[in-house]
Amino acid sequence: MVPVPPVPAAGGSAGAADWAAWLAATPPALAMRGHAWLYPAVEIVHIAGFAVLVGAVAMFDLRVLGFGRELPVRLLAQYLLPWSVGSMLLVLPSGLLLFAAEAPDLAANRVFLLKLALIAVAGLNALAFHGGPYRSAGRWESRAPPRARLHAMLSLLLWLAVIACGRLLAYV
Amino acid sequence: MKRWFLLAAFAATTASAHHGWSEYNADKPLQLSGTIQEAGYVQPHGWVRLKSGGKTWIVVLAPPGRMESRGLSKDMLSVGGTASVYGYPHRTKADEMRAERITIAGKTTELR
After folding, report:
1. pTM, 2 dp
2. Which domain, by its residues, includes A119?
3. CATH node for B19-110
4. Distance from the CA of A147 to the CA of which of A55, A130, B43, B50 falls in 20 to 30 A?
């Protein structure tokens, strides 16, 4: 998690190192490293955004898994899921800034790359759920069908893993 | 079933209770003295490039706010100045070490 330009990054392919070094030299990245409180402030925004994102997703997943069955699934989805989508407005710009500040290191950081891959898989899992079992959610009996529960369980595990990667990438 | 996955969730979140020094090998402490070639008083960690003997090390310090509050100001890390550091080498990056403490002009600052 160290020096940033002008110190060259170790590891990673030459192409990746080039654009990462370029990104780390942009004014926003310089401000992130040089300003006294900008970096921690952006970290706080990122974490608060993640709390809303994963919180809303987890509450919905738990409902699909059978908690709070008195709450209508589709109504709950209509309430919760826009929050998780909207939280991207906090998560993505702050994440990009945090990445830019240490781009050469992070672009070569396996835990960071794993985090991105897990986010992509979590997104595909959500698409598969909404394009699949969720379409018949209005007709679910008291228990969601097994495939819906499988997607919900996967979602919980994937987002927990994303959080774990986000925390642990500072330690490798 | 429900209990099982709540337990798993708990285990997954507590697994992150690490601290940031695990990538450095505390079994091989180093004491280096040398000349500061370059310094960064930057987030998330400050650093100096320290030329000691025939080797130039990247020495990772602490976040700027912590260094400031402990009395290690930005201008104390001046290029050309001398510093001595006690710390641990990175497990895989051969020229990087993280400093437990740094001494500049007779003043020692704890960095952890």
Report:
1. 0.81
2. 14-171
3. 2.40.50.1010
4. A55
